[in-house]
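## Example record

The block below lists the input lines for one assembly entry, exactly as stored, with component labels intact.
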Amino acid sequence: MEAEGRIRAVDLTREVRSAQTSLFGDLGAAKNRLRIISFDGRFGLLRCSHDRTEECRALLATVHSVGGTRAAIRVRGISGTIKAATEKYIPQSTLQPDENERRVDLGLVSGSVVRVHGREIDLAPDDQKITEGSGTRYVGLTSFDLCGEDIDADGTSDGL
Amino acid sequence: MTYFECNLHTLPDGSDSPSRMALAARKLGYSGIIITNHNATVPPFGSDGARLAGGIEVVFGAEIVAADQRAVHSRAASLRNKVAFIAVHGGDEKINRAACEDPNVDMLAHPQGGRAGIGVAAARAARDNQVAICLDLGPMIRLRGGGRVRWMEAVKRDLDLVRKFDLHLMISTGAASHLDLRSPREAMALASLLGVERDRALDALALPRSILDLNRRMWASVGVEVL
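Predicted structure tokens for the full assembly:
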């Protein structure tokens, strides 16, 4: 799950259920037999009928926001059993939000850093108008945009 | 297999920088993305960062937003030598027709936006001028209920025409944020619900690559190449 904020399992269940009935109707939903087994806020496990995986992939792709927060479901993989899926696809560590507020100013867009994950940076823009067209809350940047070929004081080259 | 995402919007049209879009697309399994912003500035915002992203090809194209047919033709002619990929912001019946009649145009984006679709005359023109029709999956992801039903009806009409005239088809999510992106497999699963077979969907996702290759060669005039 990729999202702009915290996602609750209840909201996810509701959203997946509504996407399912919206796309396939009650009859199709009964045939998919899609259920959410577990969800920890970032990784989750779903069960579905084994011969309808592509249908389920499509319906998960139509989820664009969960409980009012912009989000996207990414399918990491499919397994035959819950045990195998847990071992293969659910990692144990989770991502922490960025605590020390850092500022970014690129001319076109400026704001404070919300979250850093590898090279990816989520930025809360000062001017909310910039994200109006896409309906997101944050601006997605990378360390490449901050142009960090020089080594910074913290020993990294992320330009922060 | 090469997959290309051919109709993306980055800052200032969307909310992501080109490099963020590139990293997200690479993670999803794309081998290249084409950024088609409405106001193509030179140089595009974040093009340096996009070059550093690595592992994925980032192409800057342009999407023409025009009020009338004449504007489509003049914008396409002036952009042809500046960018590698030209899309037209479709949706209006007249604009769709004008885009299909212009050989400078590579792709007609979201022709079903205003529920207009392409229509028989435009489809015939698109075949003659080799303009690809883009199946934009954005509404399928964003809309629910009646709006999506009407959009699906328009798409079905257009896909019938695409099949009848054997038009070039492209598939895109029209993403304006990394959260809008979907992986090639998800795009194919969505397209198959709309009646696009797997082989056709594979071709559609690989087509931008071959069009870019064609565009990058030096053409002196129609059918004459500078070697």
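Chain A touches chain B at residues 2-4, 18, 22-23, 54-55, 57-58, 60-62, 64, 70-72, 74-75, 108-109, 119-121, 130-131, 133-136, 138-142, 144-147 (CB under 8 Å). The two ends of chain A are 26 Å apart (CA to CA).
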